[in-house]
Amino acid sequence: MPNRSLERIVRGREVSDGAGVRLLRVLTSDLQRRLDPFLMLDEFRSDNPDDYIAGFPSHPHRGFETVTYMLAGRMRHRDNAGHEGLLESGGMQWMTAGRGVIHSELPEQEDGLMHGFQLWINLPAAQKMQTPDYRDIQADGIPSLTSAQGNTLKLLSGEFAGQRGAILRPDTEPLYLDARLAAGSVESMAIPADHNAFVYVYQGTIAIGDEEREVGARQLAILANDGDSLRLAAREDSGALLLAARPLGEPIEQWGPFVMNTRQEIQQAIEDYKQERF
Ligand code: MN
After folding, report:
1. Which of 30, 146, 210, 278 is most buried per CB count within 10 Å?
2. What is the distance in A from the centroid of ligand 1 to the CA of 191?
3. What are the tens digits of pLDDT across the range 53-70?
4. How much distance in Å is there from the Cα of 150 to the middle of ligand 1?
5. What is the distance in A from the centroid of ligand 1 to the CA of 62?
6. Ligand 1 centre from 171 Cα, in Å?
7. 122 contacts 99 by C-beta, under 8 angstroms
8. 3-state secondary structure 129-174
9. What distance in angstroms lies between residue 102's CA and the mean position of ligand 1's atoms?
10. Could you read off the pLDDT of 141-195 as tens digits, one per residue?
11. Sheet strands side by side (includes 75-79)
12. Has residue 202 got a pLDDT over 70?
């Protein structure tokens, strides 16, 4: 099968979330069906504390997983089950909200650069009400591969080139790679053709596919499901997130921080939250 082609470039939109954190919402809700099981991707990047200092005070989630990956900065996490963790540069937190958590995500710095990503991945219907769980993985706990081209590939989740990532999920098999590509290098990567996939370039410029369509910084490239490999040609020193996963093909009903399959389940989530059953 050929290399996947670029279907569409998405630029996302600037939003304010939490208690006033400025971020770029790259994967917006209108793309949830196309990029199933991925529900949302935010990038936060600022060296102005006014953009991030307020953080994300106590709020609930139900029905999916949140993956927070920090490139620079420190964020403290606390939840209503008594879990607490500090997310530092290069580290990741993988939280399974399942039937419900209430947590806060607050910066633990008053100045300097804060740069990271939060990805939301849907859970299969059968697992939406599972027991909540989370894992904090420090930078040295994320497998780092060196490609034949000499590029560094950080394997946050999934299996790639015979290696296992920090997290494995059997149902959707999400592959989450942070690829650091040197100018002029070309990488080819295998990705199952039936997995939905996208590349988010956070630094530099990368040309995708045999047509070498260029994708610049802060742009997301949706990959067509027309091949089982991906070709990336770095035009300059670049950094990109590569995400791919098997779609669930189930109904998606979202109300803010709750993502379920039906409106009735959303009503139940709102009721359970009000009644302090999380
Ligand atoms: Mn949250």
Report:
1. 278
2. 29
3. 999 999 999 999 999 999
4. 36
5. 10
6. 23
7. no
8. CCCCEEEEECHHHCCEEECCCCCEEEEEECEECCEECCECCCCCCC
9. 8
10. 999 999 999 999 999 999 999 999 999 999 999 999 999 999 999 999 999 999 9
11. 56-61, 101-107, 75-79, 84-87
12. yes
Number of Cβ within 10 Å of residue 92's Cβ equals: 26
Across residues 251-264, what is the average pLDDT? 98
Token pair, residue 21, equals 């954190």
Question: Residue type at 77?
Answer: H
Residue type for position 125: A
How many whole angstroms from 135 Cα to the centroid of ligand 1?
14
So what's the pLDDT on residue 81?
A: 86
pLDDT in tens, 18-65: 999 999 999 999 999 999 999 999 999 999 999 999 999 999 999 999
Under 8 Å CB-to-CB from 188, ≥6 apart: which residues? 3, 229, 230, 231, 232
Could you tell me which of 166, 16, 20 has the C-alpha nearest to residue 107? 20
Tell me the CA–centroid distance for residue 132 and ligand 1, in Å. Answer: 13
Closest CA relative to residue 118, chosen from 266, 230, 257, 272: 257
Residues listed for the chain: 278
Amino acid occupying residue 115:
H
